[in-house]
Design goal:
This protein is of the alpha+beta class and 299 residues long. Helices cover 51% and strands 13% of the residues.
């Protein structure tokens, strides 16, 4: 591939802000092995390198149902349309306007920031760091009890008493819940496993006082009146690493990036026009919360 088409492609791509970040990165990535030409638009080449960058840039914007070649074809179509618009923008000399220059300066800064933070992420998210962070979080978990319960939710105390009488009379709890409960999120009244603090206080307190197999008297909460049946309880265990590895990795990355920004803030002179002269600089972003098991929904 000659240098002229390559340079023309980069200049043309820069004329459209849609994938400006990808373009700026492309200049540093295009090197080594010769790129494979996938399409041409009025002589301007679209290569496999362009495809890779665009796929990373578009990300969630690509329909989920598209996979493999269909996914690539979708992005190539996007690049073809983009190039057509780029060439029209060039013909209109939009790349020479002050507004475009300002946008490109912003995109360049954003690309540099993301590149540096990306490098920090790669260096931080090692298997050793992820394992050490997981072990520390597991060690610091406070002892807790988890409860598995069913409930029936109705608007009034009278309805709750009637439902409770039916269950005490021998009817299946799940059957009664299915017929009268107003909680659509719990099939047959099943709430799954939860800790006391993950429920509204009145519900959590009542459930924690029951023994497995016991029924509560009607309990009033902000949602209405509940009849609770405790199925079983157990000590809460920390989830194994393979179940939350992605969550732990995100925490490690966010913590490393946050620490870098805080360190840079400490060594910088920051002046803001939107604050009084004697006001302190805005606080640096806080470190992310340590990884934990996914909380249960409040009822």
């Amino acid at each position: 591939m000659s240098h002229a088409p390559k340079n023309a492609r980069l200049r043309a791509r820069a004329a459209l802000g849609t994938v400006g970040l990808a373009v700026l990165l492309a200049a540093g990535l295009c090197g080594g092995a010769q790129a494979k030409v996938l399409a041409k638009v009025n002589g301007v080449e679209i290569t496999d390198e362009d495809l890779k960058i665009a796929m990373e840039d578009l990300g969630p914007g690509i329909p989920r149902q598209l996979e493999g070649k269909a996914r690539e074809s979708y992005v190539i179509d996007f690049l073809v349309d983009e190039q057509l618009v780029v060439q029209k923008a060039q013909a209109d000399k939009l790349a020479e306007t002050p507004d475009f220059a300002k946008k490109m300066a912003y995109l360049r800064d954003k690309a540099l920031m993301e590149t540096l933070l990306g490098n920090v992420a790669k260096q931080a998210a090692t298997d050793a760091a992820i394992k050490a962070t997981y072990e520390e979080a597991a060690k610091n978990q406070k002892p807790e009890t988890e409860y598995h319960a069913h409930h029936i939710l109705v608007p009034t105390e009278e309805e709750a008493k009637k439902a409770l009488a039916r269950v005490k009379g021998g009817e299946d709890f799940a059957k009664v819940a299915g017929e009268v409960s107003k909680d659509p999120g719990s099939k047959g009244g099943d709430l799954g496993w939860f800790t006391k603090d993950r429920m509204v206080p009145e519900f959590g307190e009542a459930a924690s006082k029951l023994k497995p197999g016991e029924l509560s008297e009607p309990v009033k909460t902000q949602f209405g009146w509940h009849v609770i049946k405790l199925d079983e309880s157990r000590p809460k265990t920390f989830p194994p690493l393979d179940q939350i590895k992605d969550q732990v990795a995100r925490y490690v990355v966010q913590k490393a990036q946050s620490e870098l920004v805080m360190k840079l803030r400490e060594g910088a002179k920051i002046e803001r026009a939107d604050a009084p002269a004697d006001a302190k600089a805005a606080p640096a972003p806080a470190a992310p919360a340590a990884p934990a098991a996914k909380p249960a929904e409040k009822k």
